[in-house]
Amino acid sequence: MGRPREEAPVDAPAALDQYGCSSCHALHAGGVGPAFVWVAWRYRGQHGAQDTVASFITRGGVGPWGGVMPNLAVPPAQARELAQWILALPPEVPPDPRRFRLQ
Ligand code: HEC
After folding, report:
1. How far apart, in whole angstroms, are the C-alpha atoms of residue 96 and residue 87?
2. Which pLDDT score is estimated for 102?
3. Which UniProt keyword terms apply here (predicted)?
4. Domain span at residue 53?
């Protein structure tokens, strides 16, 4: 694992509060956005998933879940830390198909 050298460590749960991520995302069940364990499930085992998810966190927009996330102006270094944290969650729960269309 390890962090890129130039990045200061980020307290991911605090950042989720700071940016209001938690108002739309829950850990284990759906809010307005996909639960973070669903995101971990979707990208499990995929190379490059951290880049994909980090760049989505920096810009938001139309994503793969059939919704739109606002651009919250998260700095890229912090978005990478958040992506790493989200993808490290146990991918124990497949997404609820009633809530989100997976392509
Ligand atoms: C206003 C509500 C809202 C806020 C605030 C929000 N999100 Fe989202 N987020 C969404 C929605 C809706 C989606 C589904 C977009 C789609 O269709 O893929 C989403 C999708 C995601 C995804 C899935 C990306 C993928 O490729 O599967 C991640 C990861 C994510 N958000 C992280 C965050 C983080 C981290 C924050 C805080 C910096 C945040 N979100 C704040 C609504 C929100």
Report:
1. 18
2. 67
3. Electron transport, Heme, Iron, Metal-binding, Transport
4. 12-87
Ligand 1 atom 11: the closest Cα is on which residue?
33
According to the model, what pLDDT value does residue 99 have?
76
Q: What is the mean pLDDT of residues 57-81?
A: 94
Number of domains into which the chain is organized? 1
User: If you measure from the C-alpha of residue 34 to the centroid of ligand 1, how many angstroms do you get, rounded to a whole number?
Assistant: 7
For the domain that residue 79 is a member of, what is the CATH number?
1.10.760.10
Q: Tell me the C-alpha distance between 58 and 70, whole Å.
A: 10
DSSP-based three-state secondary structure for 31: coil
pTM for the model stands at: 0.90
Ligand 1 proximity of 87 Cβ (cutoff 6 Å): no
- Distance (Å) from CA 69 to ligand 1 centroid: 5
Residue 66: per-residue pLDDT: 86
Smallest CA separation from ligand 1 atom 37, residue: 21
The span from the CA of 84 to the CA of 70, in Å, is 20
Q: Is residue 26 part of a domain?
A: yes
Q: 61 alpha carbon to ligand 1 midpoint, in Å?
A: 9
